[in-house]
Amino acid sequence: MTPRTVAEILARLDLSPLHTTVPLFLEVGHLRAEIRCNEPLRSELEVYFADVLAAPGTVNTTVEVLDGQQLDPAPRFVDWAREPGKAGRKDAILDLCNARLIHKVRTGVTFLQSADRAIAFGPTAQNPNQVINFVNTQLLNICQRDGWQICHAAAATNGTRTLAIAGLSGGGKSTAVLHMMDRPAVSFVTNDRLLVRAGTPVPEGLGIAKMPRINPGTILHNPRLHPLLSATRRAALDALPSEELWHLEEKYDLPIRRIYGADRIRLSAPLTHIWVLNWARNGDTPTRISPVLLEERPDLLAAIMKSPGPFYQKPDGRFLRDIEQPEPEAYLSALAGVAVSEVTGGIDFDALQHAGAGVFGS
């Protein structure tokens, strides 16, 4: 029988394994989260979230993780339409009364999302990154209901000035931000999701507790990152044609503390600058950074905006539908006061790093 309520879902899950677990507490900006899960996943998450671990106390959200459990019989899910340019099945949903089930088609992990419960179940221990994303999603949801907007951007800051770098997936956002971090005074804010809320004189920016996920090419072209690969793997990747290396689907977590040292993460910072990457990989003209007005460039604004996705429950309790798109006006209001520039020409990360002096100083 297809479940219709949260109570019916909970009746088919066994929460008793969590009764004796020791929770993990996280602090991200002004938000606090609690994670309840068992070993070995608990220890893995404790290491992953080391930079944001906090003492026990009042939290804004609690995430419960039930490894290995499934709903039997499985519900009949409906595919969630993917963003333009993305192929293959990824998420499927089942809407309940004031709740939603989200099923990851490729891994079999399922999530219960409601106003007061956030539960991950299925093969969670084999897919820790999906649990990490689910935890961060709860913080994103809270902020969005409080008026923040999600930007598809990476960011770095020196504490008073913050540069967000936006663009399409695979355009080099993460690589560009890591080049900025070669300056000792610059800290990491976020890799792919930046929350922004209007402020005076500039908006507030808030990153999420997620390590950068980088491609092999990013590692090969930055000597500081070479320890993330064995010498054998680096040599094999270095031998690949550049076109094949660019499109290689192989992601690595980058531990900021290990590579850049302690105190190089600052998740909360004032947002002062945005660069939107609109350059060309095979471009034969020099990289150029030109000021623009987002009001006059809807194409660049579209590269910044990011849909909350199937996990988002609005303040009135309704869940986002896959046909809904972000509202440009809300982003323009949130980003008022930010200096926005377009990056054109050929891809040149060294040129971007040099231009970063205009934001962070030499």
UniProtKB/TrEMBL annotation:
Q: Which InterPro entries match?
A: HprK-rel_B (IPR027597), P-loop_NTPase (IPR027417)
Q: Does the keyword Transferase apply?
A: yes
Is Transferase among the key words of this record? yes
**Which key words tag this protein in UniProt?**
Kinase, Transferase
The record's Gene3D superfamilies line, in alphabetical order, gives:
P-loop containing nucleotide triphosphate hydrolases
One MF term in the entry's GO annotations: kinase activity
What is this protein's name? HprK-related kinase B
